Amino acid sequence: MNPTDPVDPKSPKLADFLCFAIYSANLAFGRAYRPILEELGLTYTQYIAIIALWEEDMQTVSSLGEKLFLESNTLTPILKKLESLGYLNRKRSTTDERQVLVSLTDAGRALREKGLDVNLIKASGLTAEDIPKIQTAVVTLRDSLVRHTQDK
């Protein structure tokens, strides 16, 4: 097998990979969110955990992890930090001690007022009409990849 010739115009380039486009867009989103999240004193992952709790308060760690696509061993330190910041409470379920329930405190709910100002539509260079179309396409891609890896 011959190594790929880097000067061959038919050789795939990094910019040709959809996975790299999505990965690098994610990094760009992180940079765009950084000043906003620094003002809130949160990381992006902490922020999306709080958003998920704004949508549905008092949920299990496993349910929250499924929504965020995070394993428990990744999510737990995030939740501990948010708890130490006073934004949420964790407690064992009274009906099933294996489950830990997560709920927002008043301070966590108050972040909603500040956090709702996060809007990067203008910075994205997209129109308000483009956003749901791209979001739908990316979610379809994600869900297909998740199904593909579960089938293996």
UniProtKB/TrEMBL annotation:
Mind telling me which SUPFAM superfamilies this protein's record contains? Winged helix' DNA-binding domain
- Where, per UniProt, does this protein localize? Cytoplasm
What GO biological process terms does the UniProt entry carry, in alphabetical order?
A: response to stress
Q: Which domain of life is it from?
A: Bacteria
Question: Residue ranges of the HTH marR-type domain?
Answer: 15-143
Q: Name one GO cellular component term.
A: cytoplasm
Record key words, sorted:
Cytoplasm, DNA-binding, Transcription, Transcription regulation
Q: Do you know which Gene3D superfamilies this protein is assigned to?
A: Winged helix-like DNA-binding domain superfamily/Winged helix DNA-binding domain
Q: Which InterPro entries match?
A: HTH_MarR-typ, MarR/SlyA-like, Transc_reg_Sar_Rot_HTH, WH-like_DNA-bd_sf, WH_DNA-bd_sf
Q: Which GO terms describe its molecular function?
A: DNA binding; DNA-binding transcription factor activity
| Pfam families hit by this protein | Staph_reg_Sar_Rot
Q: Which PANTHER family match?
A: ORGANIC HYDROPEROXIDE RESISTANCE TRANSCRIPTIONAL REGULATOR (PTHR33164:SF5), TRANSCRIPTIONAL REGULATOR, MARR FAMILY (PTHR33164)
**Annotated protein name in UniProt:** MarR family transcriptional regulator
| Natural source organism | Massilia polaris
Instruction: Kindly list the organism's lineage.
Output: Bacteria, Pseudomonadati, Pseudomonadota, Betaproteobacteria, Burkholderiales
